[in-house]
DNA sequence: GCCACTATATTTAGTCA
DNA sequence: ATGACTAAATATAGTGG
């Protein structure tokens, strides 16, 4: 766009494609969040780079996307998530236990010690406030429609 | 936008909201299809109108979306599992190492020591790093992600 | 409600540092 | 490859039918 008329075709040049990808992804995300804010809708998207070994990108967040997908009645994402969290708790326990052990040993030996367990960076999700309401979500009967109608409900 | 500066806030007026919704949804879909075409990515998006009994709208099509979600599900299970296990092993190693260290220190017991066990960034497993977000529309997909990196693969 | 039509705001391809 | 800048292309809030 912009300089010359847009050529709506696949960009073979990797560097150029990457730049365009990043720019447009950013713009797309912005548009999406705006739509969500303005109209109070829950939305998510998934993008699969064509490269075989690449990972999918999701928006607005992994947590939100998973939750939406689960509501989609297609995936038991919630269960998987719970399992993951359970594992995380287990890891935390182990760390705490190890820490405790170290502490005791050192104290018993009359030594100074500094034990620092940094567990920050635990997932924080950008979940819009209005997403919290269960009642907002469609109960079921997921019907995929390309929605030509565009109507509200 | 356009006439006056955009007020990025929820539109309470139903009629106005509906109009904006339709217009912006259309634009979003277009952007999505363009991203797909230009960068060769597969993308899909799901939007849930907040109204309880409404159906979600999806892009690009029911079939494509289903296929992508299936793929997403599989990836999630495998990758997540692998990653979690890898992290658990890592934590085990670190704990073992810390224990070893403390043991030596205590045994030697000749002078003061400072033992620092830094286990930062351990869990974080809740959301795999490779999970990013984005979104798209029309006949293709949309992806939105938290991923600031924006890298290609 | 749905279109078509702007006048402007926003997005972005290309370019340079 | 990343960031800033800019000119041009697009998207869209208002508006009227």
TrEMBL record, chains A, B:
Database matches in Gene3D superfamilies: Transcription factor, MADS-box
Transmembrane segments: none
Compartment(s) of residence: Nucleus
SUPFAM superfamilies hit by this protein: SRF-like (SSF55455)
Residue span(s) of domain MADS-box: 1-61
Keywords of the record: DNA-binding, Nucleus, Transcription, Transcription regulation
InterPro entries: TF_MADSbox, TF_MADSbox_sf
Keyword Mitochondrion among record annotations: no
Signal sequence bounds: none
Residue ranges that the Swiss-Prot or TrEMBL entry lists as coiled coil: none
Name used for this protein in its record: MADS-box domain-containing protein
């Amino acid at each position: 766009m912009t300089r010359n008329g847009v050529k709506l075709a696949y960009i073979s040049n990797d560097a150029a494609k990457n730049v365009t990808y990043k720019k447009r992804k950013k713009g797309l995300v912005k548009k999406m969040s705006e739509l969500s804010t303005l109209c109070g809708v829950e939305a998510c998207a998934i993008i699969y780079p064509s490269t075989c070994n690449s990972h999918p990108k999701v928006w607005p967040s992994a947590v939100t996307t998973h939750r939406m997908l689960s509501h989609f009645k297609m995936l038991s994402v919630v269960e998987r998530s719970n399992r993951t969290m359970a594992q995380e708790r287990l890891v935390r326990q182990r760390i705490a236990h190890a820490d405790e052990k170290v502490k005791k040993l050192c104290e018993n030996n009359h030594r100074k010690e500094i034990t620092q367990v940094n567990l920050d960076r635990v997932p924080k999700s950008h979940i819009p406030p209005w997403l919290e309401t269960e009642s907002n979500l469609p109960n079921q009967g997921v019907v995929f429609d390309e929605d030509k109608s565009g109507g509200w409900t």
